[in-house]
Amino acid sequence: MYNWLNALPKAELHMHLEGSLEPELMFQLAERNHIKLPWDSVEALRSAYDFNNLQEFLDIYYQGANVLQTEQDFYDLTWAYLQKCEEQNVIHVEPFFDPQTHTARGVSMEVAITGISEALGDARDLLGISSGLILSFLRHLSEEDAFHTLQQAMPFRDLFFAVGLDSSELGHPPSKFTNVFAKARAEGLLAVAHAGEEGPPEYVWEALDLLKVSRIDHGVRAWEDPRLMARLIEEQIPLTVCPLSNTKLRVYQNMSEHPILQMLEQGAMVTVNSDDPAYFGGYLTENFQALHTGLGMTQQQAQRLAENSLNARLAP
């Protein structure tokens, strides 16, 4: 089944570029930039990838991002991910990047977005992978900080097409960012947002009604609210679900508990994505394989999920 799933044409709509930083590349960039990591080997770093919740993961995630210093670093990070996409027949990607993770430590918006965009451009030309970049705000920071980040990004408006919202969900509802999302939409940007991962179904309602998003990232806890599910199905609002991430971060204790196939059979526009593949044990094909192994996903269901991903893309 793995080889068949790997050959299936797919799009990836929920993947954080910083979360594709494999330990080997992290150590390579640390050496290049003379940065001392708190782990003494690739093996020691991999052994740290045993998370009990989202916050434990984010602590390591932000520490790892410190090795990204130069335009070449961001290019190499993005290019490594895109090569994996070519191997797995991922023909369209809409990755996230978190500029505040970098500007807060003195790396400019220009350095990050230029390095990423050059790699995406090369992938279009050399690998045939189309793409659109999403600038994500960190929800544990203030809306004022998000406004400042949007202002910093506007000189590079042609390099990204949408804004998103990620990081620690609990205690940081989408409503916290209503004004900055309104400003982004006024600038012609589309909007997506993480909601309903650790946060409750109410966060999904807020993302739809207050942030006016075109797509919900994660959204699995919508399954707990029949009225919300009915709306998602009726309006065919895409959900970018990340199965391995959900089990790695204990949203579900076991893949057998995951509702994605039930949501699919009810008519929801669910898609499969890898989220932070370097940390969560696999890229897109591995997530499809996990659904086959853990939930008995059929080839027909896999085909529908892959078609959903291509139909749910937002980038022109």
UniProtKB/TrEMBL annotation:
Coiled coil: none annotated. InterPro entries: A_deaminase_dom (IPR001365), ADE (IPR028892), Ado/ade_deaminase (IPR006330), Metal_Hydrolase (IPR032466). Binds 1 zinc ion per subunit. It is an enzyme of class 3 (hydrolase). Residues 9-312 form the Adenosine deaminase domain. The active site is at E197 (proton donor). The record marks H218 as: Important for catalytic activity. Its EC number is 3.5.4.2. Keywords: Hydrolase, Metal-binding, Nucleotide metabolism, Zinc. GO terms for molecular function: adenine deaminase activity; zinc ion binding. It catalyses: adenine + H2O + H(+) = hypoxanthine + NH4(+). GO terms for biological process: adenine catabolic process; hypoxanthine salvage; nucleotide metabolic process. GO terms for cellular component: cytosol. Its cofactor is Zn(2+). Substrate binds at D276. Zn(2+) binds at H14, H16, H194, D275. PANTHER family: ADENINE DEAMINASE. Catalyzes the hydrolytic deamination of adenine to hypoxanthine. Plays an important role in the purine salvage pathway and in nitrogen catabolism. Belongs to the metallo-dependent hydrolases superfamily. Adenosine and AMP deaminases family. Adenine deaminase type 2 subfamily. This is Adenine deaminase. It comes from Denitrificimonas caeni.
